[in-house]
């Protein structure tokens, strides 16, 4: 080290002398340390990212396999240990599987029921037609049965088509503001004739005279007709139609009869497609009514009054 003073000023400088090979060695050591640090960091990053991708990809590939199984109608639930986001996905897939399973079952049951309902009248028509061919049945009786069964088949097919149209998203509902009580009077009047033919009476207590609601006239008439049709079949003497406005701005319609009432067992299922109890027909009328009422944001329930059956409908009044 050398100190150099500048005589013209107070400033001085210090000059260090050192061997360059030591500095070069220090530089080499530092480079090596940096290289090792870099290598370790890269190694840690690679290990961590492969751990992360494994953690995500393992449940995802399990899910993919599970989804492939679902497409082959294997409706098992899946449980895999995973992080929150993946767990949410797994839960949603399980909910979807549950729904798909119930649709699949409903479709199978529906097809079984339809084929059962179609087979019975077709067998009957066939056996009476064969009876005519071999001359073993009275022609008049056979013709009557064949005509009755054909009518039954036509009604069944009509109801099925109606129900499938109601189910489809494309089915147009012509919502318009209409007078619901006027519609009720009209349906009751049409059904009175049919009730009288079997010696029964339809009584109405519909107040106030006019109630406005937003609905599809044809479909609401169909729903009420289906309920009255049952009432006429089961009533001993009379069917009552009571309609009024309740406090919550709802229309409350109760159609009751003085028949045997619903069997306790039936009550849970009367709105299920093809469910029919004693003296039932196809078991479609009330499920059609339910579908229509719910499309009008209403509710429909069934019960017994103690003297017979009732169906209660609530519908919102138009604003
Ligand atoms: N007023 C009633 N009193 C007693 N039981 C009834 C009454 N209405 C319906 N039910 C029971 O509920 C079942 C379902 O009724 P729903 O109208 O859906 O079918 P259905 O009358 O048998 O056949 P359809 O498809 O021709 O209407 C009936 O089979 C019957 O057992
Ligand atoms: Mg019915």
Automatic annotation (TrEMBL):
Residues 54-105 form the HAMP domain. This is histidine kinase. GO terms for molecular function: ATP binding; phosphorelay sensor kinase activity. InterPro entries: HAMP_dom, HATPase_C_sf, HATPase_dom, His_kinase_dom, HisK_dim/P_dom, HisK_dim/P_sf, HssS/ArlS-like, Sig_transdc_His_kin-like_C. The keyword Magnesium does not apply. It comes from the Bacteria. Keywords: ATP-binding, Cell membrane, Kinase, Membrane, Nucleotide-binding, Phosphoprotein, Transferase, Transmembrane, Transmembrane helix, Two-component regulatory system. SUPFAM superfamilies: ATPase domain of HSP90 chaperone/DNA topoisomerase II/histidine kinase, Homodimeric domain of signal transducing histidine kinase. The chain crosses the membrane at residues 32-52. CDD domains: HAMP, HATPase, HisKA. Residues 113-319 form the Histidine kinase domain. GO terms for cellular component: plasma membrane. It catalyses: ATP + protein L-histidine = ADP + protein N-phospho-L-histidine. It is a multi-pass membrane protein. It is found in: Cell membrane. Its EC number is 2.7.13.3.
